[in-house]
Structures are given as structure tokens and as C-alpha cells.
Amino acid sequence: MIPYLAATMTAVTFHLGYTGLSCEDCAPGYERSGQGPYLGTCVPARAGPECSAAGAISTQPSYAGTCQCKTYASGPLCDQCPPNSFHMSAENPHGCIPCFCSGVTQQCSSSGYSRAVVEINYPHGSRDQLEVTTSDAHAPFQPQSRPQLTSHDITFSSFYETPGQTLYWKMPSPFLGNKVTSYGGTLKYVFRYSGAGPLNGDPDVILRGNDITLYYKNRQPTHPDRDNVVEVKLFEDRWHRVDGQQATREHLLMTLADLDALLIKMNYLDDCSSSSLISVSLEYAEPRHTGNQIAYEVEQCVCPPGYIGTSCEDCAPGYSRTGGGLYLGLCERCECHGHATQCDKEHGFCVDCQHNTEGDQCERCKPGFTGDARRGTPHDCQPAATRPPCNCNNHSPRGCDSFGRCLMCEHNTEGYHCEHCKKGFYGDAVRGTPFDCTPCPCPATSDCFLDAYGQVQCRNCPAGFSGRLCDECAPGYTRSRTHGGRECEPIGHVGPSDVVFVPTPEGDKRVTARRQRRRRYRVVRRRFYRH
């Protein structure tokens, strides 16, 4: 034996409490004190409680007697879940699971639901005809050939129709929708394929929901011409986003909250000749006892008003989804004006409007009912009375409103039924012709009417006028010499036309020289005579 190696081995055997070729580790029953040279001294381990195997990084406390807890673990022994987390597990590298609750609360606990399974199992009698598609959600794909159902599987053999494309089995509706309780469960499928060429490196499973796409790539080898079994846990550390980053718990739960697509890869070889799916199953959880394992990984949140679901992922009846919020949006009360108790959870329109109302918000009365549905009482909309006849004497082209009142009277008429002539017009509007109402022959747009003899008579003559048509001067007035005698003015009135200017005689001795340089005039007042 080499001398220095023998010496080293002798040293290891000689010093109690150490192990390793270089005595770098403490032997069982010893722990490192942190004192002494290099790595510290190994001293006999002190008797005491071990750290939690589920919540601590190591079951052995440090020399100081403390336990080093995982991210979501607390307590002296790391055996407790901190606030806003639940379900401690040794398999969980973080200890406990943080509450998700769609971001609307942080209070949750383990639901205690039982596992259940939705599955397709062709050897056991399933006859589901699956759709073949690609990973591109925006490019619908429909091959010319259909998969063939057998008593053992469903098989597709027409890959020559889509050279260079990766095809997927698209799971039917029982696998889709709200699958939040599938968190922590298992997706398992059995398949077989044949062909040649290199392996296809595209994702094996694709989840798509709430505008989020997650990929899973199987790390275990698969083999052609034999049954292959794949089991994938629905934990975030198994899934990746489109950009290659690892998914978070929030990503996975948001996707599962409204799962639009679950795709399983068909062609595992670049030159695949056939692919068969034998069975597929997806675990979820139910509140009833199913005889299966308890779904401890499924959270049960204490939801605020307006939210329901184990993770508060749905809006309660009478609430609908709006923008805002951290993850799935906010649930706000629907506005149905008290006429409906339910509305569409995603779009907000009211469902089954009552009290004779209609509309997205039950804001209108149904035909045959009248009132204001927005008042919010059960008696807002009452049966409409019998609609009165519409009689507008042929003067309203738009007809009547619901009360029988004419909407727009023409031909110089007015009134609920266009039965009167407008001010400034006279005639009989109920005759029903466009010429029923004639302009009044009165001065200053005075109104007029037909007297008992059927003659036109002005209603109010202007000052100074009188007579049936206001065409005579009233007592104390006389015809004006201006305006062609069409006006009447008070007797004795002096107007501009009654003043005449005459020159002063040339020989008047009393006119001074200064006044001679000017032309002077004197006013002679005319006499007024009655006509």
C-alpha cells in the first residue's frame, strides 16, 4: 500500500467523530460545532427533537439548536405553514403551498376534496372520436383523413398529408373548462407509434387557457412499436411557458381555471407512419368522498362577496367579470335594475329579465307594457292602455305618439290633432286639405278668426285702426298724408310734411346787412281741416 494513503486511513480510524478520506465529514452521532480550525470540530450530537422532515432542509438542527426552514415553512422545528399558505409536504421543495385565491384574498386552507378522474379508455369501451390538430391555435387544421377507432385504440396513419408538421390529439370537452382542482393531480396517457427518423423534440403536452399556453416535455425515453406510458404531475415545476421560462403556480392555476385546449403529441418521429392513443386520464377533485386519495394540494379560499370556487376563480350569481384585478379580473355586481338575479359571468348581460322587462340590463319595458324599467321596482312596467286612434286631419305625415297626439302638424295647423289653424291664419283645419288655413288679411301680423257669419275678423287691431279687418281709422285718428294714406295718426298731429319754408321779402328795411348775407325764412303754419 502506498505509505501516505495508509497514513491517511490510519488517521481517519484514529480520530473519533470524523469520517471521510480527509476527515471532512462528521460521523453519525456527531455534529459540527463551528469551532476549531478549517471546517470546525465534530462533537457528539446533542439529544433533542429533530427538525421537520417536510418543512426543514435537514432533519438535524444546527449546532446552535436551530432548524433551517424551507421557503414556506415556519416554527422552531419548521413544522408549521406560515400565514397565507397550506399543506406541508416532504415532496414539496418549498414546504407549504402559498395561497393563490385568484388574488382576491390570502386566506386559504387545504380543501380536503377527494380525487376523481375523467378518462378515455378505448380497451374499456370508450368510443370518443378525437380531433387532430396542430399546436397553432390561430390556424384551424382539418386533415382529409379521419382517425380510425378500434376496440383497443384510436389510430391516425395519414401523416403524409402534413409533412413537416407536428400533430396533436385534442381532448374533448370533459377534459376542459374549470379544472382548478386538477392542481397536484396526474395527467396520464398511454400511446404507441411507428415510423423512422430522428425524434421529434416538440412539446409532448400543451395546456391552453385564459390566453396562457404551457408546455410539458417528457424526459423519459419513448420507444416505437410498443405501449408507452407518460405520467405528468400538474405542478408548476413540470411546465414551461412559451418563452422557455418555468411556469409559476399563478400561471398554472390561471390556465386551469378556464382550460380551452389539452393537446397530446401524436408523431414522436420526424417520419411517423402511424400513431395510436390507447387511454388518457386527468385527475381532478370533488367535495364528495370518492374512495380515492385526498387532494390536499387543492386550496379552499375564504372568498369575498361576489366570488366562488375553491380558488375564487368564478363570479358568484349576480356578478360578472370586469377588467382590473391581479389575475382573472374583478367580479362586480350586475346592473339588472332589480329585474333579474343572474347575469352572464363573463359578459355581464342579465339573464331571464322579470317584471315585463327586457334588454341587456333589463332596462326596457317589453312591447305592450309602459313605464320606466330603470326605477328598479317590480311594478315599473304596466300593461299599456289601448292605443287611441290617430286623427291628424291629414296634416301630420309622421302620425301620432303612443298617446294619440300628432307628432308634426303641417299646412299651418296646430293642436293635438292638428285641428286648429296657427296664429296668423284662419280657416277650418278639420276639413283635411292642405289649404284649410289661410294667412290673416290683418295689418302687423294680427291674429284673426271667423265670426258667426263666417266672415274673417281681425282679433286685435293696431293702435289707431278699427273695423272688421282693421282697415279704418279709429275715432280721434285721421289718415296720414304720408305712406299713401295707409296709416292713421291722431288729429292735430304736426308732421314733417306740414312745415313749409318761404323766403323773406327783399325790400324789408329792417333787415340788417348781416342778415342780408343770409337767406332767411319764415314758417307759415297751414291750417288743418277735417276730411
Automatic annotation (TrEMBL):
Disulfide bonds join C353-C362, C409-C418. GO terms for cellular component: basement membrane. GO terms for biological process: animal organ morphogenesis; tissue development. Keywords: Basement membrane, Disulfide bond, Extracellular matrix, Glycoprotein, Laminin EGF-like domain, Repeat, Secreted, Signal. Residues 334-383, 390-439 form the Laminin EGF-like domain. It is found in: Secreted, Extracellular space, Extracellular matrix, Basement membrane. InterPro entries: EGF, Laminin/Netrin_ECM, Laminin_IV, LE_dom, LMN_ATRN_NET-like_EGF. The keyword Glycoprotein applies. Residues 127-300 form the Laminin IV type A domain. Gene3D superfamilies: Laminin, Tie2 ligand-binding domain superfamily. Coiled coil: none annotated. Pfam families: EGF_laminin, EGF_LMN_ATRN, Laminin_B. This is Basement membrane proteoglycan. It comes from Toxocara canis.
